[in-house]
TrEMBL record:
Full protein name: Sigma-54 factor interaction domain-containing protein
Residues making up the signal peptide according to the UniProt record: none
All copies of domain Sigma-54 factor interaction, residue ranges: 1-190
Classification via InterPro entries: AAA_lid_NorR (IPR058031), Homeodomain-like_sf (IPR009057), HTH_Fis (IPR002197), P-loop_NTPase (IPR027417), Sigma_54_int (IPR002078)
Keywords of this entry: ATP-binding, Nucleotide-binding, Transcription, Transcription regulation
Keyword ATP-binding tagged: yes
Taxonomic source organism: Claveliimonas bilis
A Pfam family hit: HTH_8
Length: 269
């Protein structure tokens, strides 16, 4: 973070990309300067022009941290505008630029869904945040650490978790990642009527979130009474879902190249 090389923080929904970006800002030598956030998900062409053309825009200053959130949400037209303005305003040489990106940028470029020229301008360091579902061994340590924070934040003191409660948290599939996990932990603390969070407490809250990992596995059985092409399609879809739609990881599990996987997906559409 000492220089102005751009940083792209990638990850699945709920992986904590924005929070991680705040941490980068706090660790940078620019922390005394403003952090400017631009959420690309809500950006339109008119706002984009105002952002990059109006001389009162903070982008015309120097040595700020510019956080472009949800860069993958830009339409093809806005991607071209971003490419033009970033290049002509020399934005990455005047500011520290951080971008958050949902999914795998390489996969979207290969599928012609993201501009390669824009990727060249904003890709210096790329950080891929893992999904909490791929790191179940971290569930216990995260739960205990966050519980300590909640004990300081809330007028409630919880001593810990029953072992069976932690096991249920480990086995659950967190569809919306670490953000969903933290929300559930806060609910557990608020609703607990004892010094320990019990398995019963966890089961009650998780029952409102959808099927657990084990139930989800039962729902993904293949229908073998189909053509080979349809079975292949179902296998690809299942592996993609298990890998949070990361085509690189899915292709590796399937034993094919990413380009072959992309061709098969294109054939489906």
């Amino acid at each position: 973070m000492s220089g102005k090389t751009p940083v792209v923080v990638c990850g699945s929904p709920g992986s904590g990309r924005t929070i991680f970006s705040y941490g980068l800002y706090a660790a940078s030598p620019y922390t005394s300067n403003p952090l400017i956030e631009v959420d690309c998900y809500h950006l339109n062409a008119k706002q984009c022009d105002k952002l990059f053309k109006d001389e009162r825009s903070p982008l015309f200053e120097n040595n700020y941290i510019i956080l472009f959130k949800n860069l993958n949400a830009l339409s093809p037209t806005l991607q071209n505008l971003f490419t033009y303005y970033l290049e002509n305003l020399e934005l990455t040489s005047r500011h520290k630029v951080i971008c958050t990106f949902t999914g795998d940028m390489g996969d979207l470029i290969a599928a012609n869904q993201f501009s390669q020229n824009l990727s060249y301008l904003i890709s210096g360091f790329t950080i891929q945040l893992p999904s909490i579902n791929h790191k179940p061994e971290l569930i216990v340590s995260i739960a205990r650490s966050y519980l300590n924070s909640l004990n300081q934040e809330l007028p409630i003191q919880i001593a810990g978790f029953e072992p069976e409660a932690l096991k249920l948290l480990e086995e659950h599939h967190w569809q919306y990642g670490i953000s969903q996990f933290q929300t559930v932990l806060k609910q557990l603390v608020i609703q607990s009527n004892s010094q320990f969070i019990t398995a019963e407490n966890v089961q009650t809250i998780l029952s409102h979130l959808g099927p657990s990992k084990s139930n989800a596995s039962r729902d993904t059985r293949l229908n073998l009474n189909q053509t080979l092409d349809d079975i292949t399609k179902d296998v690809i879809d299942l592996v993609l879902k298990e890998e949070s739609m990361n085509q690189t990881k899915a292709a590796k599990r399937l034993g094919i190249s990413r380009s072959t996987l992309w061709k098969k997906l294109k054939m489906e559409t």
